[in-house]
Structure formats: structure tokens, C-alpha cells
């Protein structure tokens, strides 16, 4: 997942050596997340938006809500769609279609963690809460991510940004004016003065464990990622339940190693979620003050 | 539709000759050689410059001047109705070309032979005047990268609705069916480097709209100069303290 | 947006914000060398004494008989030479500069090296030290074995040998202090923050660390090389067959970096990053002073990118500048 990053063999062994003694190039331990900052409401035209900066990684997430018909066979559910794009601003290699592969990778990984199963169970948001008129009208939430700059760990960063964007999101009140009969189409009016927030308590955060040599690290920089033999991304929610799992990289992992990586991800995610929630509240109150 | 109220106010409360609020920031992305955001009202653009650097594709190398490349992208969430845009859609390609030509005319490319300059413009929010906003952001990003230019380029748009020339159209006004003219100027040299307009207008209307847009561009130039001067001073003072 | 300095993003509490603003003001106001009237924007007219004549330097152009600035920056006048120096820009090479670069290509009889400039630099096979004596003709074997010396992505230290009209630059590594870099890490800062000094290799024996401040903004921090090069060892090395020995890597390659040494390298690297983000001059003295200060403050390595550390560094710089003035 790294573009144009060439390292000398001396640098590679220095990085691996540091990870082995729990002292990475910037002074972090293996399980230490970089400090991050969140700003919300940066795309006023969207229903909710946020920008996240994690070291040199800079991403924007937005949530746009549209009214539509519920998914076939599930009249009591709303819909989610997730999409990520990599801007050429992040790297000249992303020009034209250069960033397409990475964009698709990231989109699919997020979809796997947030969309839930075919029945809609296990989604990042309680889909039933998105229903306006059962069988006829529901909210479709479009999550769009944009990568502006990358210094590694894009997946985790995007998941945090999307949670922040969702926290920032308000759904306009829908007033049904007619059509409550099952055969009729519904007519409605949007009340753009009243907004209801969306419940984000189920929204997971993704923690990626990157394996370099015998050890695994959390929140890898672009340099560290270039040395990965394998990576496991685990989506964990506030309750500690695992909502999604992705393994990348050619090297096979011993099942016990995999289980250990997952437990590390779980442990890290709990403190991370607390920091994220704190940062989001701080961002929102900063915005309210303006 | 009435774009101007009987009191002479536009839909967003502005007077016909009033620019939207301008906001800019230099040095927003650390990886690049130069970067800047530029906002005109709700239109928000980020521009980034990589270079001058070694030409990546040897066959494109120019022996006596720099190769300038540009790509324009619009975020999926940038417009009111969310739209997935494939890369290489016609408008995007045209804008990439227009922005490149405008900035290329400003850059002293003969001073940087055998090198490559990449300009990437990313629209975060579009509310009319996107073209102008992109050019202004790119000008700041190029200055941030220390790339020599013959002059600062500044751009602004203008239109004509309800028989009145209007400065710096927003999206609603832009969709109003009147002409939409964008001009980019070399302020010091007092030369027009870009002029684009759609729709048919009689010549006298064209002149009025063109002059209004030029006035707007001059005001934008003033703003760009203030932003750049503040940035230069900040960097210089940080490095070495000021002598009184 | 976040309380950002270039290359760093952190949050400051209102109290910290206040301290930061005060410290930045003090830094600015301490008596020093830059005159505020010397700043120009692109397109600005530069006042010159047309009667007595002037010489047009970098960053300027003449339009309709007037001298205009082509970049944003500081006007410099040296005798009759008038030029504008931009602050942030790609590395502008000068002969004799010590640089740190990354090999991007191994081509016939030369390497191409990225030195953060407008073009990649060239390092000719004839401009490096070879085994078997310093002066000898390059053989076909040498040409084939170039990758034994430097291969793609290797980091090297070198000196700028020549600059050509078309902007190309040539490097040489004709001294044993130059060559492949090992056992350390690279930090990148803006080139304008590195002042040209007599020395760019700094051996910090008290820490067991070496710092190379490349004029191009690439800073290499590593373990001290095992042995300092001297004539006797030169000859010994020169007589061996191995190209590796000639590259000066045989010794440092096997340096085992202890955890303590790694911590010191990391602390120095973080100091350089922080000074770079603050836009302060990267001078060996200021690096060491800030390093020592960070120890006295008890700052842990992983907290060196926090808002508090940044505020302390700026406050300290303000203090230093006020004293000098």
C-alpha cells in the first residue's frame, strides 16, 4: 500500500531492529498509536464531515444522506454505501488512474467491516434506525473518504474519520404528508430546521497490525508498511466485539500468531475508541464555539 | 427567478459587485513541495505542487524548459447531489488543461530545464467559481514551492442575470441561465492570461461582465499578496529574528 | 484547522496556545539580521540604484526596464548583485556542498542520485574511490560490478563537484568520509534551514552518534563509524580486492546498535524533526542544546511530538534569542 518508497537495506534492517526492541524510528513502542487530531463540519454541504490528521496521514470523510426505497426483502432497514478515493495530492503516482487500486482496496476493506452481512446484521449502524416509513422510505447514507496525504495506516485513519463524520451527521426530520397506505407512494417534506443525530455507539474502529519480522506493530508509518510481511486489520466496536477482519500480505500466519494479533488489536482498540470519542467531542465543541 | 431582490440584494445577501468571503492557507500538506487551500464563499479547493524534480518519464523530458503537468479532481462529496465521477470525464479533462495552460504561462519554465512540475488541484466543495478558485489555489501552491514566476496569477468569475452584471457567481446563480465568464490576470504586467465564457451575449454586456470579473481578479490579487507576504515573513522570522 | 506547524499537527490547550503565541512573538522581536523591508512577493518591483548600475541575480527578472521579483522571499544585496532568495524551495546546489542522497538508478558508468533538487544528481564511476589505489583506470569489471559499490535506494554522502549550465549537477565521493550510509535513520527538513558551514559531518562522541547535515535538507543520524578514516587505513583498504571495503561499509555494516544508542539516535532525529517543523535553523549547536534540554525536561521519546514539547522548544528558542540580542 505504499507508493514510490525505496529504502536501502541498511535502513530496512534499522527499522526491523528498532521494532524488535520496541523502539520505533519516532520513539514509539510497538503498540503505540500516533497522536491524531480531528476537525468536524469541514464540508458544510454534507450532512456530516470530518478531517483526520494522524502524523503525515490526512484524510477527509463525509456522510451524505438521501431518501430512497428500502433494500429488497428488508423493508425495515436503511442502506449504507462506502467509497474511498485517493487524491493525486497524496502522491504523484495517484494521478489519473494510478490511485484506483488502492482506492478499491480501502473501499472493500471498509465495506467488509461496516456493511454487515447480507441480512444487514452486524452493520456499523443499526439499519433499522434509518427507516422513515417501513417498506417505502428509508435513509441511504453515503460514506465518502478522500485520502489527501499518506504516511501509512490509511485504513485505520479512514475508519476514525468516518466515525467522526457520522457523529457530526444530522438527518433532517421527515414529515410524511401522504401515502401511508401500502399501495401508495409516499409523499414527504423535509424539515431542514430540525435534525436528529445518528447513533454511533455501534460504529467500530479498525486497528491494523502490521507484521515486520517476528513482531507486529500498530499504526505503521509508510516506511514501516513497506517492510511488512503481513498485516491484519481488525474492526472492533466499543463492546469489544469483532466486526470485520482482513488479512493482507503474502506471508502465511500461524493461527496462534493470528489470534494474538487479534487480541492485541482488541486491547488497543478500547483505549483508542476512548481517545477518538474525546477528540470528536472536543472538535464538536470547538465548532460550536465558532 | 429573481436573482436580485428589489433592494438590490442577491440570493446570498451580497450586492452585485461584492466578492464572496475569501480564505486561504499556505502549507497544508507536508509531503508536497508546495500546497495551499483557497476558499471563495463555500467553494473550497486544495492545490498541491510536486517539483521541480527529475522528469519521471524520460521520453517527455524537455531539454530547454520544465514540463508542467496538471490534474483536476472533484471529490465525490463536493457537489450538492453526490455524484461519482469517473476519472477522465470531459469537464475534468478540460479543466486540467485550462489550469495547466494558465499556470504554465506564469511559470518561468526556461529557468528549470529538464525538470517536471506537477500541479494537482482537488475540489473539496463546489459552489460556483470553481475554475477561478483552482487557479488561485494553484498560484499560492506554486509560490509556496519557490517556483519562479513572471507574475502572480489571480482569477475571478462574473455573470449577468436580471440585466445586472454579478461578480463571483455561486452555484445557484451559475445555473441561472446567464453567461458565466472567468478571467485570470497577471496583475503586475496587467495582462489577461485566461478568458473563458459560455453562453451568447451582446458585446456591450460582454464588456461589462469582463470588466467586472477583472476588477474581482484585481481584488483577489491583493488578497493573495497579503497571504503570501504574511507567510514569507512568518518563515523568515522563525528562521532568523527581525532586525529593527 | 489544527494548530499546525509544517510537518506537525498537535492540539494546544488555551493556556498552551497563549504561551506559544508569546514565545513566537519573542522569537520574532529579538534583534537579529533580517530587515522587514527586505520581503517581496512575486511580481514586486525591487528598488535598485539604476544610476550606479546593478547585477541581476537569482529570483529576479527585468520587465520594461524594471527589476521584478520572480519568487516570494528576501532581497539580498551583495555589492552590486541583487537577488531574491526564496525560503521554501527545492535544494539549490553549490560546488563544494556536502549532500546526503538516495541512489535512484544504476546506469552505465554512473549512478543517478536524488538530492532533493530540480534534477537528480550524477555520480560518475570515475568520481568514486576504487580499490587498488585511488588513481587507476576503471576496468570493464568495475562497470559490471557497480552495484557492489552502490545499488538502487542506497543512501550516500557525497560532495557537489560541478554544476552545469543546463542545471545538471555532478557529485564525487573522493574522500573516505563519503560513501554508503548505514546504522541510522534519515530525517528530511527544508533545505533553507541548513546553513552552509565549514563542517557538515558532526561526530558527537559524547553520544556515540554521527550527524551529517546535508545542505540539501537530508539529515543522516547514525552510530559513529567504527574507525575514523586515516591514511594508514586508507592504504590498507585500497589494497584489498573487495569493493565493499572501498565503499567504507565493511566496518559500520556490522555495528550492533545497542538500545541506548538507538534511543540517542531517535532523540536526536526527533529534535531535528521538531526544529524543522518550527522553522528554526538546523545548527549542530541548537540540535545538541535542544537534545540536552529534552533530557532535563524528562521528555519521553514518544512525547516529543506533543503540543507541550513544541511549546517548550519555542519558549527556549525565544529565551536564547533574547539573550543574544
Description:
- The complex is a heterotrimer of chains A (290), B (244) and C (325).
- Chain A is α+β, with helices and mostly antiparallel strands and 290 residues long.
- Chain A has 5 helices and 12 strands.
- In chain A, strands 1, 2, 3, 4, 5 and 6 form a 6-stranded mixed β-sheet that branches. A 4-stranded antiparallel β-sheet of chain A has the order 10-9-11-12, with helices on both faces. A two-stranded antiparallel sheet of chain A has the order 7-8.
- The two termini of chain A are 38 Å apart.
- Chain B has a single domain (22-239), classed as 2-Layer Sandwich (Ribosomal Protein S5, domain 2), CATH 3.30.230.70.
- Helix content of chain B is 30%, strand content 30%.
- Chain B has helices at residues 90-106, 130-144, 171-174, 203-239; strands at residues 22-26, 34-40, 43-54, 67-74, 115-125, 153-161, 164-167, 180-186, 191-198, 242-243.
- The model of chain B has no long low-confidence stretch (mean pLDDT 92).
- Chain C is of the alpha+beta class.
- In chain C, the strands form 5 sheets. In chain C, strands 10-11-12-14-13 form a 5-stranded mixed barrel. A 4-stranded mixed β-sheet of chain C has the order 4-8-9-5, with no helix packed on it. In chain C, strands 16-19-18-17 form a 4-stranded antiparallel β-sheet, with helices on one face.
- In chain C, α1 runs parallel beside α9 (307-324) and α7 (259-278) crosses α8 (284-296).
- Chain C is flat, with a radius of gyration of 23 Å.
- In chain C, 44% of the residues are buried.
- Chains in contact: A-B, A-C, B-C.
- Chains B and C meet through β3, α4 and β10 of B and α1 and β3 of C.
- β10 (242-243) of chain B pairs parallel with β3 of chain C.
Notable characteristics:
B: alpha+beta, Ribosomal Protein S5, domain 2, five-stranded mixed sheet, four-stranded antiparallel sheet, 4 helices, globular, C: 325 residues, OB fold (Dihydrolipoamide Acetyltransferase, E2P), five-stranded mixed β-barrel, four-stranded mixed sheet, 28% helix
